[in-house]
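Tutorial, part two.
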Amino acid sequence: MKLLLVEDEQELADEIIKFITHEGFLCEAAYNYEEALQKIYIHEYDCAIIDITLPDGSGLNLISLVKKISLKTGIIVISAKNSLGDKIAGLNLGADDYITKPFHLAELNARVKSVLRRRHFNSDNKIEFEEFLIHPDSREVLINSNPVFLTRKEYEILLYLISNREKVLTKESIAEHIWGDRAESFDSLDFVYSQIKNLRKKISECGGKDYLQSVYGIGYKFSSR
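Running the prediction step on this input gives:
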């Protein structure tokens, strides 16, 4: 899952990124309004964590833009202790939740997971599809009740594809979603093919069907058709 953190306090932002990354998320940071604006227009995120008070603009404006660009993106507002009006304004603009400074990183992580469940998995703690059972919180994947041992990237690709069932995802979008800004520096997207190949092999070894369909010249889609 890919997150965007918009926070101008460098030390706090670094702590959040370190914690969230350790929890298995890909997290990109924007330290001001203009930087956030660029990322929102260029990239797609599963969840955005937005500090309302920024030195060069309003986080409320960013929330409005995110909702216009991608309805699927969850939003968590970071607000100052006594800014009830900002919290209400953020929620009215479409934010899913808010958290007040100072906060514990574990609480932020729990709220992120809750928003992702509501947005992507219909509030369930698990994803079920045919013989697949996925527990996003523990990152456990079962096929026909047998555990499948995936690398972090293989798991993220599977989750990305299965969360977008029947939708064709380009190699570029897969690379950008899983590797973030680093994907732009890669000379080739062959590594996406290699990850898909390994994923197919592990699924097959556990008795799973091959739902990972190649779409020639474009990318892949997860489909039972």
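The CA atoms of residues 211 and 225 lie 8 Å apart. In part three we will examine how such features are distributed along the chain.
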